[in-house]
């Protein structure tokens, strides 16, 4: 639902950041309930997932910090971007062939952007 409010990021980044952070935490909690809380926690703390865990939960913390306490637009925006990338990577990693497909799509998008952009 917060993705539908993505244009609100320009007008009111604090509202979007709070809604998106809570929604992302709900996604992870939902997956934890499906897998079992203990098993999911151990999975998030495994060597393969530790980078994601630190980047995602760090970005959630700093998103809420910058939006609710510091009230800075740029800090909130940067943390939300990191949070979106980490959450998409997390969800896609559970799909068969998802990570390879995401990497291929990203490579193709950057290749196309390089040919279209003048710099």
Quick summary:
The chain is mainly α. It contains 6 helices and no strands.
Description of the structure:
The chain is mainly alpha-helical. It contains 6 helices and no strands. It is globular.
Number of E strands: 0
Order of helices and strands: HHHHHH
Number of helices: 6
Mean pLDDT: 83
Q: Estimate what percentage of residues fall within beta strands.
A: under 5%
Main sheet attributes: strand count, strand direction, barrel closure: none
Category from helices, strands and their pairing: mainly alpha
- Judging from the principal axes of the Cα atoms, what is the shape? globular
Low-confidence stretches: none
Fraction of helical residues:
over 70%
Radius of gyration: 16 Å
Terminal Cα span:
35 Å
- What's the multimeric state? single chain
Features:
119 residues, mainly alpha, 6 helices, globular
Helix/strand layout:
Elements: H1 8-11, H2 13-35, H3 37-44, H4 50-70, H5 73-93, H6 98-116
Helix pairs in contact: 2-3, 2-4, 2-5, 4-5
């Amino acid at each position: 639902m917060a993705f539908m409010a993505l244009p609100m990021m320009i007008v009111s980044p604090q509202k979007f950041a709070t809604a998106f952070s809570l929604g992302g935490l709900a996604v992870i909690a939902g997956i934890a309930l499906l897998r079992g809380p203990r098993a999911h926690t151990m999975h998030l703390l495994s060597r393969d997932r530790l980078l994601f865990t630190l980047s995602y939960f760090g970005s959630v913390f700093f998103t809420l910090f910058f939006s609710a306490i510091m009230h800075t637009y740029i800090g909130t925006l940067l943390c939300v971007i990191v949070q979106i990338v980490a959450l998409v990577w997390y969800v896609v990693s559970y799909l068969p062939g998802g990570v390879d497909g995401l990497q291929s799509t990203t490579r193709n998008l950057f290749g196309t952007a390089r040919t279209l952009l003048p710099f």
